[in-house]
Amino acid sequence: MSERPDVPDEWLRRLGDVFAELPECVEERAWVGVCWRVGRATVAHVFGGEDGLFRITFRAEPSEVLAFENLGTPYFRASWGSNVVGMVIDEETDWEELAELLTDSHRIQAPSRLTASDEEEKATS
Length: 125
Known about the structure:
26% strand; YjbR/MT2646/Rv2570-like; alpha+beta; YjbR protein; YjbR-like_sf; Aspartate Aminotransferase, domain 1; globular
């Protein structure tokens, strides 16, 4: 079995900055890599694979899962969970797009008491 590489510290910092802006989102060490949770729900999980590639998984709206699957690289549909998708991250990653996807994942996973103010804010904008 090949070793799984550690996610570069710079990437963990960038991801941590995104999640620091999201209410009650907590970083935790995972069985491999790092995950962020809101309550007990996983918002995202980043890890190095045995193939040397880095991946981040997150939640998407059920209506978007098939779209991610059909987009192809760097996106993929995870083999677990009905709404878990992900992307390979590397030096070419669009970090702004990834931040939007992770923010959406938080909205999906967070209790409504945390997302209600976000929805109200969007409606008044």
